[in-house]
Design brief:
heterodimer, A: 431 residues, alpha/beta, five-stranded parallel beta sheet, 39% helix, globular, B: 138 residues, eight-stranded mixed beta sheet, two-stranded antiparallel ribbon
Amino acid sequence: MTGGSDTVRLSAFDRALLAGEEGEAPKLAMRILARMAEVRGAAAMLDIEAAHIDSTIYVGDAGLEFAERLAGLGARVRVPSTLNVSGLDEFHWQEWSVPAEWAEKSARQMRAYDSMGTIPTWTCAPYQGRQTPRFGQQIAWGESNAVAFANSVIGARTERYPDLLDICCAITGRAPAVGLHLDENRLATRVLRLRGIPEELAAADDFYPVLGHLLGPFAEDDPVAIAGLPVIPEEDQLKALGAAAASSGAVALFHIPGVTPEAPTLGDALGGRDPVAILDVGLPEMRAARRELTTHAEGALDMVVLGSPHFSFAEFGKLAALLRERGPERALPEEGGCELVVTTSRAVRDLAERAGLLEPLHVFGGRLMVDTCVLATPMTPGTTRRLMTNSAKYAWYSPGLLGSAVAFGSLAECVESARRGRVVREPGPWD
Amino acid sequence: MDRLRGQVIVAGTASGAVLYATQPLSFWGGYDAASGRITDTHHPLAGETAAGTALVLPATRGSSTTTAVLLEAIRRETAPAALITRGVDAFLALACVVGQEMYGRSPALVCVSEDDFRRLADWSRLEVADRALTRVDG
């Protein structure tokens, strides 16, 4: 592989890094970046102000060897860089069925990224913390849901950064000037039009994962606008929408007129151009998409799992209220009941704890997992075959990653199902 | 037409049975690097072994971790022999570039036009050589 490129205009700084003037780690990182800039047809590179590193997830020795090679070369990040989930709940993994070898290697990968001067957030929802980027900032973020949130809800500018490239950007402070970094590529080219959706349904939490599930295959990787939403969604609802659309598709930017910052109107979202495709979505399509997220429609459950993306402070508030309202009576796991597990970050857990929001969960016998999630660490024993969740991302990936069947439901349905140890449906706005 | 040219991202000589799909694939949760099998239950190629094949996909979707999974498959030699995409897919390209950097090997990676992508639908075997794709069906 050659180091430079004939087509990408590299700055004097880029060339200095390539020549190894700043050390071996930036040299390797810039060599990979310059090659990728060429592959993408970038005219130049640009400065980034922050990074979010998804490469932290341990999925095998290759990612670990890459991390340790960079760390061994003395890599340091040049911009504030938050860390995504790891393959391990660092201090509680022994409480789960995580093999010791996996734990040892995941911990080594964590140490490698820790050593580079990063911010140890260990979360897939870095926008829920103090490191939230600002509107218009150029950033290099990995983690598909975080990319969708940063672009769409905040109006920061990032491509979908794959693992291995995010850290190269962080080490160099540079990124290929392509795609969603450039204003002209941020206009919607497709429109999903909601038709006749009742306000009560559009206000419900479980509306947004389902909408995202539909949005993904329609949008593919194009910026997309959602028209006809009869309410102003909350932050956690937008988070769920983006996570779902970035699972079933490759959505990195959605606009909602009057809600997201780059779309005061639908015309603004489209830049005055006609869309190349329009998808009309009414109640029947939404109901069908909701059914699609469920492969385990009824019966006993092994686990109810919440928190993909990582549970927010506000979500802990809702969960606490539901658990208090319904009371601690439940079928215990040893009596045919199921586990209740919530995945979140250390920072949000600590805040929720101080606010007293975790007490009802502790009383219920629910369990918390931080730094990681049920998809990224082998925590569930092979006997965990039937899951229920309010997350479209968990619902999408669990069959492939865990080999489990999944029921998708609202937060209230998840809580009631956890109490009874089986799938419970409640009457609501879907009926 | 039994010979196609595309944008060669990673050159190489490879041949294999064609595994073709018009749906994008996430390798995280969709490709088992231990066995080289496609495991995404939402994908039409679920259950197929892709190791050593010519895997033809429009693009990747979903997780950022797709690159780490493909790199792991390259390390374990359970990756496809060739990857053909409709236009440039930066995730697959990156895994191949880093595969060369770390392990000195990578699947051949070629991006083809939309028309040529459709033509590949009825090929059953292909060969990548001399910067071109050649149909080698019996």
